[in-house]
Amino acid sequence: MRIVxxxxxxxxxxxxxxxxxxxxxVLAVVTQPDRPAGRGRxxxxxxVKVAALAHNLPVLQPLxxxxxEFEEDLRKYDADLFVVVAYSILPKNILGVAxxxxxNVHGSMLPKYRxxxxxxxxxxxxxxxxxxxxxxxxxxxxxxxxxxQRVVPIDxxxxxxxxxxxxxxxxxxxLDDAINQLKNGCEKDLxxxxxxxxxxxxxxxxxxxxxxxxxAQVIHDRIRAFNPWPGGYxxxxxxxxxxxxxxxVGVGECRAAQGVSNLAAGAVAFKENRFFVGTGNGILxxxxxxxxxxxxxxxxxxxxxxxxxEGLEFC
Length: 315
What we know:
Elements: E1 2-7, H1 10-21, E2 25-30, E3 35-37, E4 42-44, H2 47-54, E5 59-60, H3 68-75, E6 81-85, H4 92-95, E7 102-106, H5 118-124, E8 129-136, E9 146-153, H6 160-184, H7 216-225, E10 233-236, E11 239-248, E12 268-271, E13 274-278, E14 283-291, E15 297-298, H8 299-304
Parallel strand pairs: 1-2, 1-6, 2-5, 6-7
Antiparallel strand pairs: 3-4, 7-8, 8-9, 10-11, 11-14, 12-13, 13-14, 14-15
Helix pairs in contact: 1-2, 1-6, 5-7
């Protein structure tokens, strides 16, 4: 198959690398424009562009996908298929340019979690499994017929970053399955059950603010979901801190410490060199913490920098 690949983040770059190494021919790559990044706000290319240039592939970075010149550029490649992974919604006129249209790799078991943040929403909702879906793109968001799906388990300590890593291999397998279906004229094209659809809206910064009146398990799930961004954060001893890794006391192998059982929501206790926080239901253990502007650190190191250990509360 003659393929034009479209994607932006590191997750998408893995799929591009696979397609380059496969029997398919990658003709060109479409990705987002370079953006300022880091403290110095240095203009930085997206990971997919870096991977494309390493293979000497032509790179298109359109500002407007509806611009006539973008469609003209794509038609020059005479592609069989567009493969889309973590990119923008394609306008109707672009969907018909390639012989077999466009397929998208999406991080959920569609029709569940349609939208920009399917991985984060699945973790935040406390699911034990999710998946990867490869489907034909149409004019509606994550709406087209399904070609292939693979289930991916969610572990108790999975974050968005670790779950995305776990999705790469099954996602590549599903993509190969879908491409082979199209190549051999035996596509499944299973219509989604739209009545079962749910949304996965883009994350907002304020969603990371921790409400310690919620149950410990819910807080733990949200902290995992919002790692790396926007992070689960609150204020402690007058400064903003991010809880980068937590656990729920009494769940799995997370044991309680002596004298820690009836903490009020947001109240802090340091016991046996461990860091506990009360919640609306249960006790949360903080394993890794990050003060704003600092690097993440084990709680033992953080505790050494706090003068007052008694009576502390998150607010």
